[in-house]
Automatic annotation (TrEMBL):
One of its GO terms (cellular component) is cytosol. One of its GO terms (molecular function) is phosphomethylpyrimidine kinase activity. Pfam families: Phos_pyr_kin. Pathway: Cofactor biosynthesis; thiamine diphosphate biosynthesis. One of its GO terms (biological process) is thiamine biosynthetic process. Residues 14-238 form the Pyridoxamine kinase/Phosphomethylpyrimidine kinase domain. Keywords: Kinase, Transferase. Its EC number is 2.7.1.49. The keyword Kinase applies. It comes from Tenacibaculum holothuriorum. The keyword Kinase applies. This is hydroxymethylpyrimidine kinase.
Length: 248
């Protein structure tokens, strides 16, 4: 049996397992990768409401990172919720100190679906140049640089890294995603599957699916395309808020 590539998720724990690091590991497993995980926060939530968040100290987070990198070859890392951008920068520096060539997919969770505020500092400039891909949705990208419009924000981000803009919250052409690359290319990824419905943790699943395909050596555009298709299957798996994971 062919060995599976390792992927590390650095994210929060959701007791409903719809979002956060457990949703990431489910995605990795279905896509034939081995999921490793580092916890950044213990949350009090279910699929409908977010009540509280208890952040882990950065010392514990980096200790978890160290022990995993010392044991396993990790070339792809997905990052979800962190306390603030100072902590995020420290996490990224810790990852790169163990593997300077690691590709990092950052899903910038700024608010939960119930509008719990995760970040007080929206200055991403220190970290953008260190990551492979940023995956905000339309609501999140508007919060990243409040003094810029969306077009200006896209231009600013893509001077430093690749950007996958999720279209689940856009007012026009719902579900149309866009990939903007550092070399100035733009690709549109249109929805294909019918009967998709809102799911708790869909952003986590999408970024984790893209990370999985990168770990499987797919180029960025194809990884994004396949990651989107996987997420659509997740969104159409049932009518409830907690989706089912299956590649078929």
């Amino acid at each position: 049996m062919k060995a599976r590539p390792n992927i590390l998720t650095i994210a929060g724990f959701d007791p409903s397992n719809g979002a956060g690091l457990t949703a990431d590991v489910k995605t990795f497993e279905v896509l034939k990768c081995y999921g490793l995980s580092v916890c950044t926060a213990n949350t009090v939530q279910d699929d409908q409401s977010f009540q509280d968040c208890y952040w882990l100290p950065i010392e514990q987070i980096t200790a978890q990172i160290k022990v995993l990198f010392n044991r396993f070859q990790i070339d792809i890392v997905k990052i979800g919720i962190v306390e603030n951008f100072e902590v995020l920068n420290a996490i990224i520096d810790s990852v790169l100190s163990h593997n300077s060539k690691a590709k990092i997919v950052l899903d910038p969770v700024l608010k939960s679906s119930s509008n719990f505020q995760f970040h007080s500092n929206s200055d991403l400039d220190d970290v953008l140049g260190k990551i492979e891909l940023l995956t905000p949705n339309y609501k999140e990208i508007e919060l990243l640089y409040p003094d810029k419009n969306i077009e200006e924000t896209i231009t600013h981000i893509t001077k430093k890294t690749n950007l996958f803009l999720k279209g689940g919250h856009r007012l026009d052409k719902l579900g149309k995603d866009e990939l903007y690359t550092k070399n100035g290319k733009k690709y549109s990824l249109n929805p294909k599957l019918p009967n998709c419905s809102e799911k708790h943790g869909s952003g986590c699943v999408l970024s984790s699916a893209i990370a999985s395909y990168l770990a499987l050596s797919f180029p960025l555009l194809k990884a994004c395309y396949r990651g989107k298709r996987y997420t659509e299957k997740f969104l159409s798996s049932n009518k409830g808020l907690l989706g089912y994971h299956s590649k078929k």
